[in-house]
Amino acid sequence: MKPQNPSALHILAFVYLTFSHVTDGELSHEEIDTIARVLHGWLPDATSDQISRVIVDTAAWVNGIASDEERLAQAETYAHLMKEQMSEKQRSAVLVNLIELARADGKITATEEQFIGHLTRTLGLA
């Protein structure tokens, strides 16, 4: 279920969790740890418990969406929002985070590369 007032951190977590789940069909412990680390990078003053809560809430939100197509459509909507509201440096950081996530489980799939390529264009970085 979508949080009532999703924060910017929830939106980032949504994109990262969708990327991790949809592109290779699984969410490894390494990917979850990487998501926690990169989210903490966006909000360094947050406690580990706060970051964990954002991940748990957002995972429930992602899992509450019926299909991967709907998850991807929502992630793309958020990417357009990021393009409008984030600096180029921040948008580039989102892509770096996605590359870190792709590498987290030790294998980068063609689907992960396609997702990153699509988001690069959507974020206006291509």
From TrEMBL:
Residues 23-125 form the Co-chaperone DjlA N-terminal domain. Pfam families: TerB. This is TerB family tellurite resistance protein.
